[in-house]
Amino acid sequence: MKKIGTIFAAVATVILIAVIVWDGYFNKNTSTDFFAMDTVISASVSGADSEICVEKIEACVNNLDALLSRHDEKSEISKINNSSIATVSEKLGGYLSSLLDICQKSGGAFDITLGAVSDLWSFGKNASIPDETELQKVLSECGYENISISGNTVTLSSGKIDFGAVGKGIALDEIRTILDASKINEATVSVGGSVLIYGKEAVKVGIRDPYGNAGRSIASLLLSDTCVSTSGSYERHFEENGKRYHHILNPKTGYPVDNGLISVTIISDSGLVSDALSTACFVLGIEKGTELAEAYGCEAIFITESKQIYTTESIASEIEITDSSYTLIGYEN
Q: I need a labelling partner for 332 at 20 to 30 A (CA). Which of 17, 98, 149, 180 fits?
């Protein structure tokens, strides 16, 4: 009898070990960090295919970078910008159609033809205020209305197409496709200011302190299976003659937006939409930005320079303030 009990205990131990190994196989965690799209990409993936998934993610982002970069002469975007007319892939044509819809519905607050204007400001080591005459000349040549699409043919009458304000969000959508086709339970992927939360389990997501370092948050909320993109005036800026200039430009003036906002966060099922709307809503301001976000079924969080937080109606009660110097105003109709 004692022998039978010993055998039973041994079998039970083997079964337990097998269960642990089996569970570990399907919940294997793999992480990676790499540089692309002029930013650091971080991915943490859990599931049986996690190792191969992070490899596919890196390859995907690098390929997308080559496709969308207007600085790569071989990219499809460069071909359009340099020849004014080009036959593009179905994928790029789809991106352009979606973005033109946002350009139109935002009343031009989001405009993907401002590449030449951004070049004049040259936000980076040599950033400076452009010559006014040159700025107005270049601005007059911009406008999303200059783009027309017929089948796979794209025509650009003037201006330069620039995916800088939306490429990172598009990357999230492409990465989600990889995860959907793999044995993955959950994942968190950060591409600059855009983050993909993948999986049904809700996770706490922090809202960055616009006045602090990247690791400090001022509020949080629980999110699952969604994309989150933030545009902030703190990301790239410079000072000249005592005035601060940031990289989020008003397509109507060619100058940095000056409306009292310091950051806008958009929550959406689509990475492309979340990234594009974070810029559009920043330009539009709280009232019109809220209307645009709700028109796309998105949630929005606006933070003002005076540390007030405004939100779309649905999430006003879900945000937890973690920094008492900020005031949650919530939704204002």
A: 98
